[in-house]
C-alpha cells in the first residue's frame, strides 16, 4: 500500500512539473503576440479546404473565442491551460478583443503532452452575458457542444439551433468539433489592463472601446469569414 501511495504521489508530481514546464508565466507571452497568434490560428482553420467552421455558423455567432496553443499534460492526472481572446458582435462590427484564460483538470489515462488550438462560438446573447463575469464554468454555467465541420455541414439541426456554445479543436493537423466539460474561462485582468486600462469587459465587448492596432488582423479575419 505504501509503495502504491508513493507511486501515485510521484505521478501527480510529474504531472505538476509538466504543467509548470508547458504553461508560461503571465509575463512570458505578451498580449500583442497573443493577438497575432489568434489571428493566424483562426485564418488557418477557416481557410482549410472544406474543413473549417461552416460560415453560416460564424454569421450567426454572437462571440468568437480563439485559444491558440492550449496546453494539455498528463500522467494519470491531467490538466489544461490556455490563453486567448474573444470578440463579440456590436452594432458597428466586431468588438475589441477581451483577453481570457482557460483552465481545467481531467482524470484518466493521459500520458505525454499535447498542444491544441481551440475555437469556441457563442451563439446567443444569453451565452455572451457569461463573458461579463469574472469567470464561468464549461459544462456547468454553459454547455459546450461539438460543432459541425466543413462547408457542406448541416448547421440547421435542432441541437445546433439551441446550442449556447459550439467548440472546435485542432491538434497535429486534425480538426473537428469537441465537447468541453470541467474547464473554467476567466478574464485575464493583467493583459486587459495592459491594453485597456480600467475599462470593463462590458465596455470592451459592447464596442465602446476602440480596438488596438495589434488586433487588426484578427478583426479583419472575423469580418471576412463571418460573411455569408
Features:
disordered N terminus, 8-stranded mixed β-sheet, 228 residues, alpha+beta, 8 strands
Would you give an account of this structure?
The protein has one domain. Helices cover 33% and strands 33% of the residues.
* Mean pLDDT score: 80
Q: What would you call the quaternary organization?
A: single chain
Low-pLDDT windows of residues: 1-28, 106-111
Domain unit count? 1
Q: How far apart lie the N and C ends?
A: 62 Å
Report Rg: 18 Å
What structural category arises from helix and sheet content?
alpha+beta
Shape: globular
What would you say about this model in short?
The protein is an alpha+beta fold and 228 residues long. The protein has one domain (2-225). The chain is 33% helix and 33% strand.
Amino acid at each position: 500500500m505504501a509503495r502504491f501511495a508513493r507511486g501515485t504521489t510521484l505521478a501527480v508530481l510529474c504531472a505538476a512539473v509538466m504543467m509548470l514546464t508547458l504553461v508560461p508565466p503571465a509575463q512570458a507571452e505578451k498580449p500583442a503576440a497573443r493577438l497575432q497568434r489568434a489571428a493566424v490560428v483562426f485564418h488557418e482553420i477557416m481557410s482549410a479546404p472544406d474543413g473549417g467552421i461552416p460560415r453560416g455558423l460564424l454569421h450567426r455567432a454572437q462571440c468568437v473565442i480563439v485559444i491558440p496553443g492550449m496546453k494539455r499534460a498528463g500522467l494519470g492526472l491531467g490538466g489544461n491551460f490556455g490563453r486567448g481572446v474573444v470578440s463579440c458582435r456590436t452594432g458597428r462590427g466586431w468588438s475589441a478583443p477581451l483577453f481570457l484564460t482557460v483552465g481545467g483538470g481531467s482524470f484518466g489515462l493521459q500520458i505525454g503532452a499535447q498542444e491544441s488550438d481551440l475555437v469556441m462560438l457563442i451563439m446567443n446573447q444569453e451565452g455572451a452575458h457569461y463573458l461579463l463575469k469574472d469567470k464561468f464554468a464549461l459544462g456547468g454555467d454553459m454547455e459546450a457542444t461539438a460543432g459541425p465541420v466543413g462547408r457542406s455541414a448541416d448547421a440547421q439541426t435542432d441541437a445546433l439551433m439551441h446550442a449556447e456554445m459550439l467548440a472546435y479543436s485542432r491538434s497535429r493537423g486534425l480538426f473537428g468539433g469537441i465537447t468541453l466539460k470541467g474547464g473554467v474561462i476567466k478574464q485575464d485582468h493583467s493583459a486587459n489592463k495592459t491594453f485597456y486600462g480600467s475599462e470593463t469587459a462590458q465596455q470592451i465587448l459592447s464596442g465602446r472601446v476602440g480596438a488596438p492596432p495589434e488586433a487588426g488582423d484578427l478583426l479583419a479575419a472575423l469580418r471576412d469569414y463571418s460573411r455569408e
